[in-house]
UniProtKB/TrEMBL annotation:
InterPro entries (alphabetical): AAA+_ATPase, ABC_AA/LPS_Transport, ABC_transp_permease, ABC_transporter-like_ATP-bd, LivM-like, P-loop_NTPase
Localization in the cell: Cell membrane
Membrane topology, record value: Multi-pass membrane protein
Species of origin: Paracoccus sulfuroxidans
The organism's place on the tree of life at top rank: Bacteria
Protein name: Branched-chain amino acid transport system permease protein
Amino acid sequence: MADRVHSSPKRGRLLTRHGTGLALLGLLTLALVLLGPLFLDRFTQNVLTRSMIYAMMAITVDLLWGYTGILTFGQSAFFGAGAYATALILTHVGGGAQNFALALVLSVILPMALAALVGWLSFYHKSTPLYASVISLVVPIVLSQAIFAGGSFTGSSSGLVGYPVMKLGAANYFRLAGVALILFAGLAWIIVRSDAGRVLIAIRDNPLRAAYLGIRTQRVQIILMTVLGGVAGLCGFLYANAGRIVAPEIAGFGFGTQMIVWTALGGRASIFGPALGAIGIDYLGAQLSGSMPYVWQLIIGVLFVVMILFMPRGLAGLLPRRQRTAAAPTLATLPDRPQESSKDALLSVTGLRKAYGNFVVLDGIELEVRPGELISVVGPNGAGKTTFLRCLSDGTETIQGTITLAGQNIAGRPPEDVVALGIGRKFQVASVFESMTVAECLRLARATHERPTLWNRASGIHLPSAALDILALTGLDKKLAEPVSGLSHGMRQSLELAMVVAMLPRLILLDEPTAGLTKAERTLIGEVLKRLTQELGYAAILIEHDLDFVKEISQRIVVLHQGRLVMDGPVEEVVNSELVRSIYSGMAHD
């Protein structure tokens, strides 16, 4: 178990100069919403009330699609479920304060339950984004067909109309929708800029690396979909009351597609862009659809295609991007993981066999790794080295044999559970988060030890001394506020290694960490690995082709050839063996 810090980093406030400006803009918008009914006619009030409800729906789509990478058509189903729950209660039970309260509760709870089910179906282990999108596409189709089949109970194709509603009047419905939109947009803006918001972006940009940092990506996706399903249901409650009518179309696939269009045109991952896109398009649609219905739909369709092809950031992309000027976070030292003196095997592999159909990749692998050992795995391309690391770090791989870590069988455990047992994996190609800064990547590596908050972004990062050494030796400690996209290949490799070490794992898996590095960079990585294992007691398994590098840092060398472990012994014995010479000679002639 990693050491806990005794003092947590200071939390930085999100209301910077930029945030203060947005707060002032929010107050101005609030004033316009409250005063709007004084100079807007009733028709405009009704249209803008609906548009502002739609704007909240567009923000939920942006949080799912723009920030978390979940392309969903299902928000219309949750919206429709909330609206119909409200209308059914008020139609068949009646009005009154108690029934309005019941309708409000059901309009949130039922969509949340439906969203949780959809999330569970969509994000089981190894599900693909395409699968999640298909599930979200099917749900509104099924729900709208259920409404059609409901007969007089649901109003079938005619919908429900004439039920009692809250007697607020057009002006107060306008104000209620506007205030709700401002509050929800402000809350969403704070969350996406918090440490928890960085987790959403990590899942969007690189879900595999997020999982191998111990972040339970499926759980986060399901929780987010469930919460936003409840928000969509609340929007449905407002819609059913303000509009005084519900129809099957609001729960269907077409409306779900409209939300995608609003979000894309307004600008993904901007919160305010999708909201303004929804308001603008819906308001203009109300003004123009009567006189030119087909032309208006054609215009929207053409704009959507143009935006996707030439302006992927939507209308928000026309605004200049704000340069990051935030001060670099402070770095604090954590105690390194205590050195383990046990002579028992930390990792034990018995009879490992991995095959894809009739093609056997690994066969009969036996291996034990103890604390403080650095074992290099060598062999020609196609020997099964990377597959071997994947089997060690992902218990859901279909294998024969047994893999135990610290006495725990990893069978059936997804990567985030294996990480919790003490494995950290570095990939062959540096796996980091391109849209983040160096500091944000490092902070995410500590996410399982220091829970990210929804409201703030930490101003400091606690890292073990070994990770700090990597940053200092490579100069990354001077680039904490810089985006990862601007780093060299060698610095990215070093950053990923620092992220893995920051997790305080027991066993580090490294897949060709020196590939593409200069001699100086390879030497630096070698020194870091020797300190981690020989001084600090980490165990490490290294895949490497450079035998000279392997000889300098390893205690043992394991040779894989054609999926079999053909040699396991001391460095000099293996390097000077005729078997290794013949294998590498064969590689030279390939």
